[in-house]
Amino acid sequence: MSIFRFIGNNGHFILFFLSIFLLRDKTIYMFYYIVGSFINYIINSVLKRIIQQPRNDSEIIDRENDSRTSKTFGMPSWHAQSAFFSTVFIYFALKKRNILYFYVFISAITMIQRVVYKRHTILQVIVGAFIGSFIGYLYFDI
Structure pTM? Predict the structure, then answer.
């Protein structure tokens, strides 16, 4: 597996665990970040069920039943939403540009990989990034 594909598939997890590490001495921020990540996930799940726009690849392998299914939706992209939630929250919590640049880099690779590998459309990752950024800002500002 290439590094591009690995980061694209796991960028949101990389940023999540890195954020926990970076916030280890700021327990109140860590608490808000973890709760905010959970709320961000719920919002993404609800939006996918409301919008019901299929993924770009429209059919995925259901490994449990060893068959193909099209029961997942792609709008908004969870990977992009999660990555940008982390990016915005960590920037406001730490206010360090070098960390911001790294987070933006990982988030951008995640978005690009999702489109290149046809897991999402460009619109799905852009909307996911916007929603994640917005929730990250709102949740930090609470």
Answer: 0.83
